[in-house]
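Intended use. Records like the one below are meant for learning the mapping from a protein sequence to its folded structure. Do not use them to infer anything beyond what is encoded.
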Amino acid sequence: MDARAIIVKVRGKQTPSQEELAWFAQGLASGAVSDAQAGAFAMAVVLNGLTDEGRVALTQGMRDSGDVMRWDLPGPVIDKHSTGGVGDCVSLILAPVLAACGAYVPMISGRGLGHTGGTLDKLEAIPGLNINVTEKQLRLITREVGCAIVSATGQIAPADRRLYAIRDVTATVESIDLITASILSKKLAAGLESLILDVKCGSGAFMKTPDEARALARALVDAANGAGCKTAALISDMNQPLAPALGNAVEVGICMEVLAGDQKAAPRLYDLTVGLCAQLLMMQGEDATAAVAKVKTTISSGTAMERFAQMIAALGGPPDMAQDWHTHLPKAPVVGEVTAPATGHIAAIDGEALGLAVVGLGGGRRVETDRVNPAVGFTDMIELGASVTRGDPLCVVHAADEDAAMEAAMAVQAAITIGDAVTPGPLVIEGIT
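Structure written out for the chain above:
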């Protein structure tokens, strides 16, 4: 086959065959396809798109460009993926909850992207923890604990790693076809039976409108199902942070509070996690009411916390994380309130601006080589619709120094609109199957 002929087809609004797209993906992984050819292919897809069949074929080809795991476990192998938001630490609760329900969750996660935090960065706030494990270690931890949240090995979907880097420098990131293949190739390489997708929508998400989120959710669900993995999606609201904590260590801390049974510590985080877990169990044949009850019981009984602590210990973290997380999580030297500059109601929250404020504190990366400060961020973040009087706290800032704290406080005040009373929309906007 010839990369040029495949590019000509996409440029001419024709869909290459499954065999051609599989060959192209292998060429990306092996180097047989040049950077110039990969960039031309990506631009042709951005401009002309792929059919549903082409999207599935590209996803499968990129999945099969490296190792694809196979499992022999006494329960379903399932997972979740979020398209990214602010204060979104669902994975840290969801994985141990599902493990406590009898499922197995080999969760291959990523780092922060833009204004959104990364699950791996959050986990690495825990001292001693190592998310870079071999496939053998991943298999062992998943079998023994029921869940493992780790980084991808170099052999998982190498075609995606190459194409993603090229998309980043050729202005071809914003393509539903390429986004779909990128997300799913890595997830499906983990050998999943079922997958739930949390597609975020709103000011703190990449997809700002319901129509954008719906289009991505539909593409992801159809492509994953077409590739043989039972998949559904929830479109969830991200017009305010999901949890009242933003930053790496502070988000781990809020997850520990929820796992310890305090659902009021982060009610939106708790509710969405329960919904996503229950949806996955229902996809395995559970009754809806029974699925919700089982998920809630694993949290209230402490069994999900036990699984989380076992996973942390297996990854090299502290063995007593369940009992003593406050001691282990790093703390910022400067902590202070950010106050409301006016009286009124919280009428709007610019989640993207808050995420970038965390990056400004050092809690994320502006470039790939930046080091992340795990201790910085915000806690006690005020909710949309709340009533405030001038001088009331909007949140608490955790910073490395006074100058950074002052700059972050101004960013928070600019990101929060105080005005007339509003009624926040529903947490889950709709489901896609």
